[in-house]
Amino acid sequence: MAANPSASDALRKVDLFAALNGRALDKVAARTRTVQHPAGKEIAVEGKDGVGFHLIINGTADVLVGGAVARSLGAGDYFGDISLIDGKPRSATVRTTSEATTLALVGWDFAPLLDEEPELTKALLMVMCSRLRAAEAR
Asked: What pTM does this model have?
């Protein structure tokens, strides 16, 4: 599977993947696909099974928790990272507020990389530890 250079460039800006070397990053990028979403589409639904990660390339979306808008997302923002890793139900709904393009990575394509690329696994653990420390500090 050949990596898409623009996918590698986009993923490099995501904290989960920023520390990866080029080879590991290219392996992740090779498993992504570009997805077009119309305005008003619920890409992720709170409480439903999550199957993947989405990085917004262009367009906008709202994150809703309990039906209320918790925040807005735009180019460079991402969601689905936790469900990508643990496969558990979504903690929020993400609905596009304009036409949007995302770089998507599904769990069944991502999971084998955790065994193949120890560097990826370590990078994810480091980011998750950082997030946990930040949450504990609040």
From this structure: 0.88
